[in-house]
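Re: [ENG-882] Designed sequences occasionally contain unexpected residues at chain ends

Forwarding the minimal case from QA. Structure tokens:
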């Protein structure tokens, strides 16, 4: 039976949830203060990472901790105030990254990743967005042979266990595929399964248009109130009062404060990230998405130029931008590829909503009938948005989801 449903948050996760629900015949209103795909979904690396079966653990080895401690790295930076604010979830994150706990988390996380391409494919077809998508994989480039061999060993294990395909590239193979990269690199892992997207924000916008074509409504307005009364869930936004039987919380890092008002505590913290677009010097051309694995940034040939994305910054959600991490990444990137001038007036900043056990929160809120969560996807919101939408729609319609959803329940913390 068709129901009135409100989805809060128009990033890739919220748009995907809304589309899958509308596809099933429900009357869905998608609410966000900004147009679809304007926050973190706009600024990511643009990879649907089918190979990412292992979430990013908290570093526990002494060598990595000593490397990170001076706070000058490209892959991770931190602000003491931000770490203090998130001290409890960060401590839980550290504990969950122990070998024993992490070993149990990986197959649960991988079960979601395995659905990513198929769930995106349905939405890409409906949105007519195939021109934005390339199915050629991406390159994880290494400067030293030892690091390359270690990564290839992991890749072989993941291929045997999770069906993730890859190809090993030596220095000559890499030079053939990307002749504009610097000489002297050890080689790369060519991940064969992932898809790349030349305009991530544009893809989310195309998905939103497909949602509207299914009869859904997009309301661009700030949410001012969320409450439940005997008639259902009430949402006040932009001067309108909306009523629905169900509400889906998909507001990324902003979900925590709204859930807390309803008495549900989800220990979210953020990893912020930055990007900038560049031209290329002379005849240089970047053909594939390229990660400089031992440094910790990525170069992506987007429609807007070569996008340089940084690693993670542990800082408060609303703290001012800090641009030194991007500057450090740019310095290293210019050694790898002949970047031209900056094309954007200012660096972009976004925030990834993360959980202490590295798994998203998907499912009903216990004791709050009709309230559902779809949040906490960390580094893989762009990859997992459509899979989350499909699974949550199955749950909301009372069906048995295609994978075990107990590891992602709201009350697990």
């Amino acid at each position: 039976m068709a129901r009135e449903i409100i989805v809060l948050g128009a990033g890739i996760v919220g748009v995907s949830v809304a589309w899958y629900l509308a596809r099933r015949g429900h009357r869905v209103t998608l609410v966000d203060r900004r147009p679809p795909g304007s926050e973190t979904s706009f600024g990511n690396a643009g990879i649907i990472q089918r190979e990412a079966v292992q979430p990013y653990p908290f570093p526990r080895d002494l060598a990595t901790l000593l490397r990170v401690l001076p706070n000058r790295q490209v892959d991770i930076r931190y602000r003491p105030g931000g770490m203090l604010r998130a001290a409890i979830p960060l401590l839980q994150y550290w504990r969950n990254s122990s070998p024993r706990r992490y070993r149990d988390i990986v197959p649960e996380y991988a079960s979601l990743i395995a659905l990513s391409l198929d769930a995106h494919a349905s939405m890409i077809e409906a949105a007519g967005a195939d021109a934005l998508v390339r199915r050629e994989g991406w390159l994880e480039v290494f400067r030293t042979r030892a690091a390359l061999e270690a990564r290839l060993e992991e890749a072989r294990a993941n291929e045997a266990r999770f069906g993730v395909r890859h190809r090993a590239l030596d220095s000559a193979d890499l030079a053939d595929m990307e002749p504009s990269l610097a000489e002297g690199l050890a080689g790369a892992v060519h991940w064969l399964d992932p898809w790349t997207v030349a305009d991530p924000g544009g893809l989310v916008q195309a998905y939103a248009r497909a949602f509207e074509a299914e009869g859904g409504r997009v309301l661009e307005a700030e949410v001012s109130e969320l409450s439940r009364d005997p008639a259902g869930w009430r949402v006040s936004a932009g001067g309108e009062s909306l009523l629905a039987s169900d509400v889906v919380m998909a507001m990324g890092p902003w979900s925590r404060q709204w859930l807390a008002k309803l008495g549900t505590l989800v220990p979210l913290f953020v990893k912020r990230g930055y990007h900038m677009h560049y031209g290329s010097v002379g005849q240089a051309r970047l053909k594939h998405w390229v990660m400089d694995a031992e440094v910790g940034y990525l170069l992506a040939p987007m429609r807007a130029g070569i996008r340089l994305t940084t690693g993670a910054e542990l800082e408060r959600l609303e703290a001012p931008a800090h641009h030194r991490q991007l500057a450090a990444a740019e310095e290293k990137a210019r050694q790898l590829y002949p970047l031209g001038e900056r094309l954007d007036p200012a660096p972009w900043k976004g925030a990834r909503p993360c959980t202490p056990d590295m798994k998203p929160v998907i499912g009903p809120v216990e004791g709050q009938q009709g309230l559902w969560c779809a949040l906490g996807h960390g580094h893989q919101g762009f990859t997992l948005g459509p899979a989350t939408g499909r699974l949550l729609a199955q749950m909301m319609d009372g069906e048995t989801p295609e994978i075990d959803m107990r590891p992602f329940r709201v009350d697990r913390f």
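QA comment: On inspection the terminal residues look reasonable. Residues 4-42+201-268+358-412 form a domain with the FAD/NAD(P)-binding domain fold (CATH 3.50.50.60). Proposing we downgrade this to a documentation issue.
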